């Protein structure tokens, strides 16, 4: 099986390989080839990344992820998949989730006669492209739009070098107010969907992540009967503790099953 891996902004394929090593080690009995792709644009490091990883760092677009930029990135991704695929799954983190989900949505709306870019998707700590959703007729509440902006600012602050050095893991505390104490279902209700991602999906997010609501929103635009969700209760990260690694590995196994069913 082949899994395409799309990293977050200001990191790289090599960094994403390291970030996922703990749960991937639990899949050693599976015949899986993980293809860690680098974004096309050199980038400054994501907040806090340069404390742990050396350059180079990459991103999937250069500016703020306008619909035009995301569409261009999807076109490049589709070319790569055509040349190097097919892929059984895509595994994505943060900005990689924006790219992968946009590829699926645009495929369903604009090229449904072609094979999907991958058969199943594993989204980690990332949300959808709001600009692409708007183009495709999704209705996003004003509160969700506002939170999308404020959560990005909060992530930059809480994930930065200063917060890491002075607060450590405690830097993710006290951010729940960003979501207004809303339940996951209430957050999902903030987006009205004219259609949903049709393939099986896994959604992994942390309730202490400033971008937690974005991850829940992405689960909202996936088919409920074909999705699994998991709250690792941490921040914008992939915790390497045993319980989290074991759970994510099992979710990957489910996603790669021949005919996964939600449960």
UniProtKB/TrEMBL annotation:
Keyword 4Fe-4S: no
Segments forming domain Serine hydrolase: 1-247
Superkingdom, taxonomy of origin: Eukaryota
GO cellular component labels: cytoplasm; nucleus
Keywords: Hydrolase
One Pfam family matching this protein: FSH1
GO biological process terms on file: antibiotic biosynthetic process; monocarboxylic acid biosynthetic process; secondary metabolic process
Gene Ontology MF, one: hydrolase activity
Protein name: Serine hydrolase domain-containing protein
